[in-house]
């Protein structure tokens, strides 16, 4: 009996692995649109999918980013300048894409554009500190999706939303985690709405990677700038030693990040080309072995492990 049970498990594992390897055909006929292609995941994705034979339309924020990308890719790849927070810019881009893809529609939409914003304790911040990452990471993503959605429905294609482990666990104050939590909610509702149209919606949750977005030096500079404008009361509660140690800790994260950006692009590739794509992808060792498992744990355990890494305040009772 045990032998047959083991054989069944091995067979199921084989079939599951085989199923995941089945790919779509004729990718050279398919168009994909990627946001945030100046650097990082988006840039590597645009170059990778161009080499694979897709018709890539890469959205860049800057002219310099667009020029550099076109210099490294084939004539198939087109770029468009796009600020995802500008509704009129997004509408014009969607119309331009519609003219490019014609009746084929848009096979893939990869919502990758995002920013980190300020990472600092919430009681240091104003509403404005939250606004920019929410505008880019959430409303920008929704705006692009809604404008491109008719084209994706026409192709019965794929939508891939790049979220973050920050959408599963809030590792710091500021607008980043709230924006990514909201992306997860939008992704889930969109996935269910689009099933009837044959559109598959996937979410990628990268861990900590070495990109411009997660540059610890820039994050430390922003945190220090906020500190300098805090009230004397807040500074007394936290103490000068807090800001010094927390900046050192922030800069020290550079040694723990994933260096291989292709781990995220491989998730995009599977979500785009597999006959049986997954709904969620975790990218990076830290995401798979720490952040995602911890997100399923009780809050008391989450708080214990995350608070162990926090720098102690000088005088939290000075209120």
Automatic annotation (TrEMBL):
Which InterPro entries does this chain map to?
A: NAD(P)-bd_dom_sf, SDR_fam
Q: Name one Pfam family in it.
A: adh_short
Q: Is Signal one of the keywords?
A: yes
Q: Which domain of life is it from?
A: Eukaryota
UniProt keyword list: Signal
The region annotated as signal peptide is 1-17
Organism equals: Rangifer tarandus platyrhynchus
Family the entry assigns: Belongs to the short-chain dehydrogenases/reductases (SDR) family.
Indicate what this protein is called per its UniProt record.
Answer: Dehydrogenase/reductase SDR family member 9
């Amino acid at each position: 009996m045990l032998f047959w049970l083991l054989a069944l498990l091995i067979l199921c594992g084989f079939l599951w692995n085989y199923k995941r390897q089945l790919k779509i055909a004729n990718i050279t006929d398919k168009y994909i649109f990627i946001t945030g292609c100046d650097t990082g995941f988006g840039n590597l994705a645009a170059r990778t999918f161009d080499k694979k034979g897709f018709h890539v339309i890469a959205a860049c924020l800057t002219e310099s980013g667009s020029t550099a990308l076109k210099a490294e890719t084939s004539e198939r790849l087109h770029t468009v300048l796009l600020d995802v927070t500008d509704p009129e810019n997004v509408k014009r881009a969607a119309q331009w894409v519609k003219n490019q893809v014609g009746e084929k529609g848009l096979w893939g939409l990869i919502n990758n554009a995002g920013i980190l914003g300020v990472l600092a304790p919430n009681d240091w911040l104003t509403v404005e500190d939250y606004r920019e990452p929410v505008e880019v990471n959430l409303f920008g993503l929704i705006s692009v999706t809604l404008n491109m959605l008719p084209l994706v429905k026409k192709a019965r294609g794929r939508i891939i939303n790049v979220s973050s482990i920050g959408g599963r666990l809030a590792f710091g104050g500021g607008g980043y985690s709230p924006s990514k939590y909201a992306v997860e909610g939008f992704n889930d509702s969109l996935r269910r709405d689009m099933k009837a149209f044959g559109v598959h919606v996937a979410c990628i949750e990268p861990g900590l990677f070495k990109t411009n977005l997660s540059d610890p030096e820039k994050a430390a500079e922003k945190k220090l700038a906020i500190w300098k404008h805090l009230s004397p009361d807040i500074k007394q509660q936290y103490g000068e030693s807090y800001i010094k140690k927390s900046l050192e800790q922030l800069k020290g994260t550079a040694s723990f990040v994933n260096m291989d950006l292709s781990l995220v692009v491989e998730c995009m590739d599977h979500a785009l080309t597999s006959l049986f794509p997954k709904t969620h992808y975790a990218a990076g060792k830290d995401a798979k072995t720490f952040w995602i498992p911890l997100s399923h744990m009780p809050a008391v355990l989450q708080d214990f492990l995350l608070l162990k890494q926090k720098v102690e305040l000088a005088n939290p009772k000075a209120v």
